[in-house]
């Protein structure tokens, strides 16, 4: 199933390490928001999920959300997939962290500044944002461009606490600054 979506297909060789990294960085997570989730929630079957975690997955594709909710019934965590345009209607629930994997650059193509608006609206102390390290054809190194994008997005709203590079993406741990 994970091979049916480009991002999760790329992540398959290191999927366990990827999610272990994320959950090891979030201190006592109670809830996670997976924004523009794609098929990420299916990866939860590969990892040890922290006890007591509630997982909320958001996506624009109704059929995908229906499928993910069916999947959630087969695993032993509290989870819900929600059909919602996170740009037009950002989630308002509080959580320990939000995930936004390989989408910020696409959101910015739709309209510059939208990722920043989204991150400002979230009620979370930490955001784990990933971006691709190479172009889809593999020819171009995107790291300098993606680093610049994250720095611009974070300006005044968050601090990059840590970054971790994986074969196809880099994950930025952003600690929100609340004024």
**Number of beta strands:** 7
Detail the poorly predicted runs: none
Number of helices: 6
Global structural class: alpha/beta
Shape estimate = globular
Major pleated sheet: 7 strands, mixed
Strand order of the largest sheet: 3-2-1-4-5-7-6
The SSE string, one letter per element, is: HHEEHEEHHEHEE
Could you walk me through the main structural features you see in this protein, from its secondary elements to its overall organization?
The chain has 179 residues and is α/β, with parallel strands linked by helices. 31% of the residues lie in helices and 25% in strands. The protein is built from 6 helices and 7 strands. Helix 3 (62-72) links the parallel strand 2 and strand 3 (78-83). The model has no long low-confidence stretch (mean pLDDT 90).
List the helices and strands and how they pair.
Elements: H1 6-11, H2 15-25, E1 31-35, E2 54-59, H3 62-72, E3 78-83, E4 97-101, H4 104-110, H5 114-121, E5 126-132, H6 143-154, E6 158-165, E7 169-176
Parallel strand pairs: 1-2, 1-4, 2-3, 4-5
Antiparallel strand pairs: 5-7, 6-7
Note the main attributes of this structure:
179 residues, alpha/beta, 7-stranded mixed sheet, 6 helices, 31% helix
TL;DR?
The protein contains six helices and seven strands; from the N terminus they run ααββαββααβαββ. The protein is of the alpha/beta class. The model has no long low-confidence stretch (mean pLDDT 90).
